[in-house]
Specification:
It is a single chain. The chain is globular, with a radius of gyration of 14 Å. The longest helix has 11 residues, at 53-63. By secondary structure, it is α+β, with helices and mostly antiparallel strands. It has helices spanning 10-15, 47-50, 53-63, 99-103; strands at 2-6, 21-24, 32-38, 78-90, 112-127, 134-136. It is 18% helix and 34% strand. A 6-stranded mixed β-sheet has the order 2-5-4-3-1-6. It contains 4 helices and 6 strands.
Length: 143
């Protein structure tokens, strides 16, 4: 199965259904099953320096029901969900996303919106080593 590694909290926001698009600086022609991997290391900057307060608050409204109260509670170095990658379009061509989707992604011109469907959060994250770009994950097939 193809996989993509994302910084937290974005991997878990996809897993819990709060985020339906992953915005990237590059497009992909791949369509099909994809595993969502939470990066091994935390994002290079802290919540307070890269995420505005209102966005952080909105994120934690989705994370707290999962028992995630602090950034340190997020899983790292693991597959957290599977999904179907159903579309990839330039952000300028996509009808404007809703407010929450805009808060949780980088919708600046020149980027690409990867549309995800049928997202299934794993009951327990599966440890895995990630990689940049799309990569092949050889984990369990019965997810």
């Amino acid at each position: 199965m193809k996989a993509i590694t994302l910084w937290q909290p974005w991997a878990t926001l996809i897993a819990c259904g709060a985020k339906h698009y992953e915005t990237r600086s590059w497009p992909t022609s791949y369509r099909g099953p994809i595993a969502i991997h939470a990066a091994t290391k935390p994002a290079p900057k802290t919540f307070s320096t890269i995420i505005p307060y209102e966005t952080s608050k909105a994120m934690f409204e989705h994370l707290m029901p999962l028992g995630i109260y602090f950034p340190a509670d997020l899983p790292h170095g693991a597959i957290v969900a599977t999904a179907e990658l159903v579309n990839c379009v330039p952000t300028g061509r996509k009808p404007g996303p809703g407010f929450q989707e805009r808060q949780f992604g980088d919708w600046t011109p020149g980027r690409y919106a990867w549309e995800l469907a049928n997202v299934k959060m794993l009951p327990k994250p599966i440890p895995a080593k990630g990689a940049q770009g799309l990569w092949d994950w050889n984990g369990p097939t019965h997810l």
